[in-house]
Amino acid sequence: MGNPHTGSRDIGPPRESVEPAEIPETPQNGYTDQENQGTEAAGQDANGGSDWRTGYRDVIAVGEFRALWLAHALSMVGNYLLNLAVSVLVFQQTESALAAGFTLGLTFLPHVIGGPLLSGLADLFPRRRVILISDVVRAVLVAMISIPGLPLWLTWILLFCSILPMVPFSAARAALMSEIVQGERYVAGSAIINLTSHVGTLVGLVVGGAIVTLLDAHTTVLCNALTYVASAIIIFVGVRARPAPIQESTSEGSGRLRLWEVTAGGARLVFGDPRLRTLGLFAWLAGFYMVPYGLANPLAAQLDRGAAAAGLIMAGPAMGAVLGGFVLTRLISPAPRMRLIGPLAIAASLPLLGWLAQPPLWVMVALLVVSGACASYQFVANATFVLCVPPDGRGLAFGLVAAGLQAAQGVGIVLAGLLAEVVSLNIVITIAALCGTLGAVALTLPWSRLYHGTIELMYASEGAP
């Protein structure tokens, strides 16, 4: 198949795709020249670009990033309230906990199915346009869900279809942000986006139910639709139009690539390059250490506690991620940060071994906070992955890994629930901890060889015009 990046060659590893920068050879001591000199002393990234210490301030000063950030925050609020409000609607209509649970489970499927199929739209078409159309389509579909008296099957279909546009939206947002800011500014921007998501989760756990109670479920769903309209307006006003990335890189005279061609080529790119494959698998480890999140209600019941205890268990990883993510991306320089991806991935699952001791609630929450703080390696791995992918394939690459992440979390929770029918919850979580730790160790070994030169590859585009 022709290379969607060039229109003529097979897809190669990113090292050969990013030009004109070359990856320097690693010296005999195993460290790059920049690492030996110390990025801390230089006060700059490995390519001599923006100062990593001012990354947060630099990226917030960019108007287009602020627009993307606000649009993401609005969409995230809409997503959380939509899931909560629709599950309430279904429960009110059916009085069935199984139907309400199925409704929440249904929200995973669009990401798993749509990730490989729709993420390529963010590379085939102008990314700003993809974001705008996704928001408008979501607004229309969600507004339809708010119509009283809909049959249950139609509510489920509309919910599924309303979440599907989130796939190209997220892929286009991540890829477009890499066009707006590069290097350490992208790392800081990606961290801000992730921190916003985790803070939003904490706020949602506290006030989400109160909002649905105050407004009623139908009105809440309709308000969700308005958040997507507001997001589209912000992007339309605050982000300038850019051409489609593949359209720019495809040679003149060649026809537009089809979506399936881009998807097949992108999969080969992600899974054929050891660096991208390893970073993607690091992301999927969340399927192990997020098991307690999925078992929050059974864990609370095991302690003879109610919904408040379940909420604390679910909030634990997010509290840790906010703290750990800020420290990792704001206080630690790029080279040590890159080396820490493997050790932190191992440490993310280790606290779950504490379930062998049948801990009380406060210890459970503390263990999950520590796990979440260590799992903030995902902030760095996410940004590293996107920046290491050639610019015209970033949307699809991001979508493929995001789909795998959703699948890993969903399958992990389902398997844990099934296993809990046979053995105790403590044993289930301990097994997940062991699997996550062993998986992280298996990935850390090759990463210890692969991360050399990754910083230079990440920042190769920062000096580009």
UniProtKB/TrEMBL annotation:
Compositionally biased spans, kind Polar residues: 26-39
Cellular compartment(s): Cell membrane
Chief place where the protein resides: membrane
Alphabetized Pfam families for the sequence: MFS_1 (PF07690)
Span list, region Disordered: 1-50
Gene3D superfamilies from the UniProt entry: MFS general substrate transporter like domains (1.20.1250.20)
Keyword Transmembrane helix included in the entry's annotation: yes
Keywords: Cell membrane, Membrane, Transmembrane, Transmembrane helix
Membrane topology field: Multi-pass membrane protein
Regions crossing the membrane: 67-91, 97-118, 153-174, 186-211, 217-239, 278-295, 307-328, 340-357, 363-389, 396-419, 425-445
UniProt cross-references to PANTHER family, sorted A to Z: INTEGRAL MEMBRANE EFFLUX PROTEIN-RELATED (PTHR23513), STAPHYLOFERRIN A TRANSPORTER (PTHR23513:SF11)
Protein name (record): MFS transporter
Species this protein is from: Salinactinospora qingdaonensis
